[in-house]
Amino acid sequence: MRDSSEWTQLMYDEELERRLLGAFLIGYDEAFRESPRIEADLFYSNQRREIWGAIQRLISQGRHPDPFAVHSILKDRGVEVSLGELIGMANDSIPAPDFVWAVERLRELRTRRQMVEAINRSLRRLGLDDAPQILSRVLDELKAIQELAVDGIGIQPALLAELVAAYRQGELREPPQLIPGILPGAGLAVLAGRPKTGKSMFALQLALALAEGGVFLER
Questions:
Q1: How far apart (Å, rounded) are the C-alpha atoms in residues 2 and 15?
Q2: How far apart are CA 67 and CA 154, in angstroms?
Q3: Residue 175: its pLDDT value, please?
Q4: Which residue in 174, 178, 198, 205 sits closest to 189, CA to CA?
Q5: Which pLDDT tens digit goes with each residue over 15-31?
Q6: Cα(first)–Cα(last) distance of the chain, in Å?
Q7: How far apart are CA 52 and CA 145, in angstroms?
Q8: Is the pLDDT of residue 11 over 80?
């Protein structure tokens, strides 16, 4: 089971969010150019989303979103954020050369949150009350989704949830092996390699061993 710090690193980065907001408060040109591409849900907490909303409002009015102006808007909205905290964000802002990287990193974390939420919904639809615990084990065991790519993830949440459910009910077992660890008895196997590296000879020797019922690579 993952501890809370590991889950935090997987789902969001509070410090990076603060420093990205600080780039707007300090007035980086790069930040203003990128502002139309930044969505509120990049930020994990409602408070930071409110700060971003105030910054957006000022930018749309052609005003510089300095800490004092942002604090004034937040105060009118009843959002409790101190002026000192906003000034601290500005002082700790992300360096201008790292701004685009920071935005992409927050997008990656948002995709992870969306994927985890979708998997949880699928698990609950299947009647699995301990979905968070199951999801933790899935993320630990399946390296293919542990890093959760930004695009083209390839594994649908509903399918993954069904596989987890089948495994828990004993319906998903290790397939029979023709050659243990090399060739399964069912499904598709791929033999790949650079040209002229012995793939054809490897396949012929494997086929001969199967035909004769012999041993292949000591298996």
A1: 21
A2: 42
A3: 62
A4: 178
A5: 999 999 999 998 877 77
A6: 35
A7: 30
A8: no
